[in-house]
Specification:
Helix content: under 10%
Strand order of the largest sheet: 4-3-2-1-5-9-8-7-6-10
Number of helices: 0
Radius of gyration: 15 Å
Largest sheet: 10 strands, antiparallel
Order of helices and strands: EEEEEEEEEE
Number of strands: 10
Distance between the termini: 40 Å
Structural class: mainly beta
Strand content: 35-45%
């Protein structure tokens, strides 16, 4: 099975980078393979209840100076099953994206960033770390 690059963000602000092989949001935890600079353990079991979000990323380096797109425009297309939304986390961070299954999983939901240059391909936001979700109007 192919491992995916991820950044795991805890509700307390801690961040760990590594890989996930079999991510299942219908479970209480998942197995995580951290980069050596974050843990000497070869693998960790991480419980969703302690997390803010799991970011499935393109590369580990990223670009801290990049300013993400923070608005929806006419070019932001969605499929019939998607919803545009703005997620506000309890720590004040806002996430602009789309979701196929907001509320689908008990523990969280997937968000796909609207910015094509974002380092995240998708984010699994944990409900307990979210302050609010604003569903945007769908333009027809």
């Amino acid at each position: 099975m192919l491992k995916k690059k991820v950044v795991v963000k805890y509700q307390d602000g801690k961040i760990i980078k590594g890989w996930i092989e079999d991510f299942r949001p219908d479970r209480e935890s998942f197995i995580f393979y951290p980069l050596i600079e974050y843990s000497e353990e070869e693998m960790l079991e991480i419980k969703f209840s302690s997390l803010k979000a799991v970011f499935f990323i393109k590369d580990f380096a990223g670009n801290k100076n990049y300013k993400k797109v923070r608005k929806f425009d006419v070019k932001t297309k969605v499929t019939p099953g998607q919803r545009k939304l703005i997620v506000k986390f309890k720590d004040g961070e806002h996430l602009y994206g789309t979701s196929h299954g907001y509320g689908r999983y008990k523990v969280g939901f997937f968000v796909y960033p609207i910015d094509p240059k974002d380092n995240s391909e998708r984010i699994f936001a944990i409900h307990s770390a979210v302050e609010s979700v604003r569903l945007m109007k769908i333009e027809i």
